[in-house]
Design brief:
270 residues; alpha+beta; NADH Oxidase; 2 domains; four-stranded antiparallel beta sheet; 12 helices; 49% helix; 11% strand; binds flavin mononucleotide
């Protein structure tokens, strides 16, 4: 098994998988280690993990996740949920006051779901398995919650697919460490810092997109001439789509009891 440093160094998101199943004892070992080895707010463990292996159920998740085909290839899909339902049922059983059906509850449990997802990820990667996160969980939050039968104050936060890698992609670049690290107080980057921090990424990222004929054609058609423009274009993280999804996420929070049911979510200009 790889050490933590070896695991992090070897990390690449994997989007092509072999058909091999993951032995149940390996899955159990990874999950048990992650559960025991992940810090938890108040040790209340406000998360749940839904394991999907059934091909028919994976097919429906594939549809809900914007048809990302690696879901169909990977033998295991894990949906990590912010979950106060179990804890709140226990509180009720013991005659304790109810809580966590509020926005702070959501935020705490969403953090827990992300933390456990990364521990599980490291456990699988240390054993040579590959994973890919799926941010589409947030886009389809409500529908995924319904499909997985999630109860009140339980919502999906992120998803990973897991399996034996059938590809070995190049390691993806990151910004230099000084972009993320601030000494004592936040040091605002000026234009020349941004030039320096993003220069290399702009070049390699843009070259990467231009090497893919369909993306190159889309950029030419849409008048997109830089990596930054690409990121907030309709092909990537469109601001209008982000605003619409934000509302859907808020509706899902309200629907599952994390926000007051009477909260008005309509936009002022509607
Ligand atoms: C929260 C989260 C959501 C992501 N969602 C997707 C996704 O929906 N589809 C996908 O192909 N990759 C997804 N990724 C993977 C990222 O694209 C990937 O981590 C990033 O490009 C860096 O590449 P690397 O993981 O190989 O270093 C996601 C990653 C994170 C952390």
């Amino acid at each position: 098994m790889k050490t933590v440093a070896e695991t992090l160094t070897a990390h690449r998101s994997i989007r092509q998988f072999k058909a091999d199943k993951i032995p149940q004892d390996v899955i159990d070992e990874v999950l048990q280690e992650a559960i025991m080895g992940t810090s938890s707010s108040g040790n209340l463990n406000s998360y749940s993990m839904i394991m999907t292996r059934d091909p028919a159920r994976k097919q429906r998740l594939y549809e809900l996740h914007g048809e990302q085909d690696f879901i169909l290839q990977a033998p295991l899909v894990i949906t990590f949920c912010a979950d106060w339902y179990r804890t709140r049922q226990w509180l009720q059983l013991r005659g304790a006051r109810d809580n966590f059906n509020n926005f702070l509850g959501y935020q705490v449990a969403a953090n827990e779901a992300m933390l456990i997802s990364q521990s599980v990820t490291l456990g699988f990667e240390a054993r040579g398995y590959g994973i890919c996160y799926m941010g589409t969980t947030l886009q389809a939050m409500q529908d995924i919650a319904d499909y997985l039968d999630l109860p009140e104050t339980c919502l999906p936060i992120t998803t990973i697919v897991v399996g034996v890698p059938a590809e070995r992609p190049d390691r993806r670049e990151r910004l230099p460490m000084r972009a993320y690290v601030h000494d004592e107080i936040y040091q605002e980057p000026g234009p020349s810092d941004l030039e320096e921090l993003y220069g290399a990424r702009e070049e390699t990222g843009w070259q990467r997109y231009m090497s893919m004929p369909h993306l190159r054609a889309m950029c030419e058609e849409g008048g997109i001439t830089s990596l930054a423009q690409m990121y907030t274009s309709p092909y990537k993280y469109d601001p209008d789509a982000y605003a619409a999804t934000s509302l859907r996420v808020l509706e899902a929070l309200r629907g599952r009891g994390f926000l007051p049911s009477g909260l008005d979510l309509t936009q002022p200009d509607e």
